[in-house]
Amino acid sequence: MGKNKKLLLGITVPVVVLLVSAIFITGVFCKSGNANFGASGSSPLRNDASVADAVKAQDVFRKIFEMNKNSVVFISTEQTIKIQRHPFFDDPFFRQFFGPEFDSPRTQKRTGLGTGFIISEDGYVCTNYHVINGVDKVKVKVDNESFDATIVGGDERTDLALLKLDSKKKFTPVYFGDSDSVKVGDWAIAIGNPFGLDRTFTVGVVSAVARRDLDMMGGSQAHIQTDASINPGNSGGPLLNIYGEVIGINRMIYSQSGGNIGIGFAIPINTAKSILEQLKLHKKIKRGFIGVQIVPLTEDYAKELGLSNTDGALVGQVTEDSPAEKGGIQPGDVILAIDDKEIKNFGDLLSIVENTPIGKTLKVQVWRNKSKLNLFITVKERP
């Protein structure tokens, strides 16, 4: 027994020594903080003056996110759809065989995601029309707090919609910028919920302005093009400038794969303002109308008329008893400007007239008999 005890003690002592050694070695590594990995000290770029401007830009991006993070909202929708029944259930034999439950209409819940942003302290929210089109319920998450929302109105043509949060709480609205002053090369910042990833922040530049005829839905409406990453779920979110102001509403991407390839489009905020105001007042859009039909203006015909270029909208026909006829516009006139805003093409004319409040009188400058003439036309609602 004595020998056995010594043997056990002889085995135990080395084990204890090994455990103590392991604890000691582990403690050394823990205290050192893995100092053997990575270069010692800070990066030399921290003291490099050439990096200072980039750090300033980084600080601005952080401020923009902090300023807007509680104004950009996560929208979830629910829609009840009917599932089409298989044709053989129309046969009385099959209805009798499978039972009455197969004879009754079947429904399914469909959910959707999107983005929006708060535009007033009392909880009005701007988003895209296609985000809420046809849905039964809308939930809006603001800084991790969820609210029911009412659809105030929507406009398919411009793809804009206005929601109202069902709450008496005071919310933080965004700042509006001036989309007319946006230039190619300006910073462009998108905040949204791509693929359901809440409040994702991406940065790029304005790639182009006044992109037109992108699809049938928007007609000739101008869009801001950007390479800031926009993906499914970003729809309805804000496109911001370097001051953190909204310059556009992210609407769609150009992609063959469904993912971002650096070509995204946003509705200019100046276009959206009047639409949102009308939706709040009337729940629908009352579009302006003056009653002219525009035809192409070729270079040869422009020279014949005495114009130096093809800028403007050539009037081919005037609708009888329309505001244009009453205001004195004639076929062959070239509309050069409206309220001192130059008209480059038909799209400019359509955009200004449609977004003009009903009953407002416009100063229309036309080219007739090789000279400029000012006419005054009162806009009426499109029939």
Q: In words, what does this structure look like?
A:
This protein is 25% helix and 34% strand. A six-stranded antiparallel beta barrel has the order 1-2-3-6-5-4. Strands 8-9-10-13-12-11 form a six-stranded antiparallel beta barrel. Strands 15, 16, 17, 18, 19 and 20 form a six-stranded antiparallel β-sheet that branches. It is an alpha+beta fold and 383 residues long.
Record the strand order, biggest sheet. 1-2-3-6-5-4
Q: Give unreliable regions as ranges.
A: 1-26
In percent, how much strand structure appears in the residues? 25-35%
The end-to-end distance, rounded to whole angstroms, is 112 Å
Structural class: alpha+beta
DSSP strand count: 21
> Cα-atom Rg, whole angstroms?
32 Å
Overall, the morphology is globular
Question: Which descriptors would you attach to this protein?
Answer:
383 residues; 25% helix; six-stranded antiparallel beta barrel; 8 helices; alpha+beta; disordered N terminus; 34% strand; globular
Summarize the helices and strands and which ones pair or pack.
Elements: H1 2-32, H2 52-68, E1 72-83, H3 92-98, E2 106-118, E3 124-127, H4 129-132, E4 137-142, E5 145-155, E6 160-165, E7 175-176, E8 187-192, E9 200-211, E10 223-226, E11 238-240, E12 245-253, E13 264-268, H5 269-282, E14 288-289, E15 292-295, H6 299-305, E16 313-318, H7 323-327, E17 334-338, E18 341-342, H8 346-354, E19 361-368, E20 371-378, E21 380-381
Parallel strand pairs: 7-12
Antiparallel strand pairs: 1-2, 1-4, 2-3, 3-6, 4-5, 5-6, 8-9, 8-11, 9-10, 10-13, 11-12, 12-13, 14-21, 15-16, 16-17, 17-18, 17-19, 19-20
